[in-house]
Amino acid sequence: MLTREEFEGLWVECGGVATRGYFYKRWGGRISEEEVADLVQATALKAWKASHQFDRLERASLEDSFVAWLFAVANTVALDFFRKLHASTTMKNTVPLDTGPVFTIPDPVDEYGEVDIEDLKARALELLPPGPVRDTMALQLSGLGFLEIIEVTGLPYGTVGSRLNRGRAALRARRGEIMGVAV
What structural domains does the chain harbor? Predict the structure, then answer.
């Protein structure tokens, strides 16, 4: 634990300069001179409040131990600063809730007309080449869940997962053909 005199002496001797250098090196181009000064001051205050936690490193001088500990405090101060900065800029860039929807999702009925789900499933299976991927997709399209497919087929977890992923990817690539429209 540091006394007030020890803390002030270390801060004046090496802490302030080291902290300012740390902020410039790490975030110099992204923050202003005033913000660097604010961060240095906030670091000094936080370090003083937490000075009871300071523990000198065994094989280092008091000054080196203090600077290493101070960098940890400075990093915490900077991360808090950037979180608050991000939150404030995020809030400035949001659209007020009373301006209506930011985007609209097209209604599939408007886009494709009335569709028969069972017909879509049948078309999708026809587009897949015969084989284990098609068989596994047929089980899922029939309404079985992932774990039920594993139980019914006796296949390993990873095998079922990879077959379903390959089948979904193939169907995504050909979704226009399934829906009967050119994509």
Answer: 4-97 (1.10.1740), 108-179 (1.10.10)
